[in-house]
Amino acid sequence: MMRDTVDLTSAWTIRDAVNTGAISAAQVARVALRRIESSDPALGAFVTVEPERVLARAAEVDRLVRTSGALPLAGVPVAVKDNICTRLVGTTCCSKILENFIPPYDASAVARMETAGAIVIGKTNCDEFAMGSSTENSAWQATHNPYGLDRVAGGSSGGSAASVAAGMASLALGSETGGSVRQPASFCNVLGLKPTYGRISRYGLVAFASSLDCIGLIAHSPRDLALLLSVTAGCDERDSTSAAAPVPDYIAALDQSVAGMRLGIPREYFGAGIDPDVKDIVDRGLRNAEALGCELVEISMPHTEYAIADYYIIAPAEASSNLARYDAVRYGLRAPGARDLSEMYKLSRSAGFGAEVKRRIMIGTYALSSGYYEAYYGRAMRVRTLIKRDFEKAFADVDALLAPVSPTPAFRLGEKIQDPLAMYLSDVYTVTANLAGVPALSIPCGISHAGLPVGLQILGNHLEESSLLRFAGCYMNAFPLVTPPLKI
Amino acid sequence: MEITRAEVLKIAELAKLHFPESELDAFLAQFQRILDYIEKLKEVNVEGIEPTSHVALSGAHGSSHHRADETRSSLSVEEALMNAPDRGEDQFAVPKVIG
Known about the structure:
Radius of gyration of chain A: 21 Å
Distance between the termini of chain B: 41 Å
Shape of chain A: globular
Structural class of chain B: mainly alpha
Largest sheet of chain A: 11 strands, mixed
CATH architecture of the largest domain in chain A: Alpha-Beta Complex
CATH class of the largest domain in chain A: Alpha Beta
Number of helices of chain A: 16
Structural class of chain A: alpha/beta
Low-confidence stretches of chain A: none
Mean pLDDT of chain B: 91
Largest sheet of chain B: 2 strands, antiparallel
Oligomer: heterodimer
Radius of gyration of chain B: 23 Å
CATH topology of the largest domain in chain A: Amidase signature (AS) enzymes
Number of helices of chain B: 3
Strand content of chain A: 5-15%
Number of strands of chain A: 13
Strand order of the largest sheet of chain B: 1-2
Strand content of chain B: under 5%
């Protein structure tokens, strides 16, 4: 492999080349850094890149491979969302309140990737504390879509999706509370996996809504995704909600056929509000699934229409509690001039949090306040049970579900930012999986008339990541990815 | 449910947030729109339905991690204090709490 032709779109190829000595991790890192230098000014996917640290780490990986042998992610450049802690590398959650925060520890998922030989190439832009669907709520910058620079990359993991799509990183970690990996993956023509709740440790993922939060994965191919999941999945004693279930062989699952797989098509996911282009492309995806031998069954998930309202009580309620920790005492911004403790809290939080974060803290505080708790949060928890039951009933009959990811392709920067409710509604097909805790995967499915990528979503039962990957593997083998030219 | 200016100010106090007078009306309007939307949940009959507060897996695949109650090393004092906005004598420093 020649130094200047390193293909960063395949983690698998890179790690094989590094493991056999055909190329060094240092060479790969230099290529990735050059790509970031040339492409990122137009995209704004990264918020922190420290070339010296990256090159030192690459040299360490080269030594490790020489002394200890092959590693599963040897030399693979991985981008990490800025709400996932990286030891001694700034982790701001794209919030002014954490502008100077330097974690003294690594998130478990990051530690596992590094043990596997990966190189954290940089920290990626996101909506502040992952609250948003366009990455425009970042305190630092907006991220542009590599397939249309006037379009959003999606959110909240927009920087992670754009970094992989534009070939600046081979893989990326994002996070999902309500579609924040699948939607940007769909907008950027890459794969985005939200695993089962608890499948990947949340230790070191800065808390937003703890009953919904998951670390999610972004890659160019099902094989790369399976590789990254194999490394990051598994029980972690530092996360009491992490699942004890053994980690299956995700890579072996890719070789199996999907003929005879029974797939539910929930009619509520194809209702009013879906863009005609998206509907056509997803319909084609369904026909392709049939061509692969899958059996399609129309089903009903009657509580889907309440998912957004449910989510926008539960997520803000949990956020209002989690974000109480930003008290300007142990870390984070402390505004000057406070005369007492209470004023210090108020001044610091008001100066440090952006508009959307404040809005959600307010909604959550309201929903949990005395007199309203039962009417809002109490009711929302019961509706969540009904949404979960929709999935249980569906999976009693079918192996997985197929649906769109987002009702529209990437929208324009600025289009929804003044209208929070319109922004919330763009997550209508994704928040259900978070509420139910089931895994779901966005697979590139086609390109709209405007040249924008559209994803197909497959949702599975708890711990059924293998089935989702198997479907993605067969699908993308038979119907290879269409990649229009990048606009950079 | 109609939300008043006074209620917004009360919630802001509970959440330790301050909204300047100039932003309050715009905030109130957006807040009201979102509340109107989430009112939608009132259509659902939830009688007799158990609440779901979390979706962590249970049973053999579950998430109950207990370990022996033995001392282990953790962050050093220096690491714990490295992000403190103000510190002194190996502790976090804050404005005077008791008058």
